Amino acid sequence: MDAPPVIHKGDRVMIEVKGKGLLVQAVGMAKSAGRAGDTIPVLNQTSGREILGMVMTAGVVEVPF
Length: 65
Known about the structure:
Layout lengths: L11 E8 L2 E9 L8 E6 L5 E8 L2 E4 L2
Parallel strand pairs: 1-5
Antiparallel strand pairs: 1-2, 2-3, 3-4, 4-5
């Protein structure tokens, strides 16, 4: 059986970008539902740009650097 989504469309999420010794966070809104490991579109509420990120846990999406 598939695991239920940990993020749902419209959820407020934390967008994280990680690099060597660097962590940048921004608030976003999920544009679709996703389970851990899924790639979903997220709207960065600061910039207004839509980006793709991987669902890490409930409320956290990581964007590759």
